[in-house]
């Protein structure tokens, strides 16, 4: 995983669903796990970033991404 991907995860807004408007890094792990269990991450870049976000959260590395958020 590259720094550019981490920056993108920190600053990409969830475009739909229950957590629409939240940054990907701020999505609850349970929400991401729901997509993973159903094997239904969205197609394309958003799905890739959501899967990376789940990996970051499940490994306890959220603290590395939070400082990369734009304010």
Automatic annotation (TrEMBL):
Protein name: Cytoplasmic protein
Domain of life from the UniProt record: Bacteria
Pfam family, one: QSregVF_b
Source lineage: Bacteria, Pseudomonadati, Pseudomonadota, Gammaproteobacteria, Enterobacterales
Annotated InterPro entries: QSregVF_b (IPR024530)
């Amino acid at each position: 995983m590259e720094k550019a991907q981490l920056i993108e995860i920190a600053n990409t807004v969830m475009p739909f669903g229950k957590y629409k408007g939240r940054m990907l890094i701020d999505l609850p792990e349970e929400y991401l796990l729901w997509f993973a269990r159903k094997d239904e991450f969205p197609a394309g870049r958003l799905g890739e970033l959501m899967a990376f976000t789940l990996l970051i959260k499940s490994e306890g590395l959220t603290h590395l991404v939070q400082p990369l958020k734009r304010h």
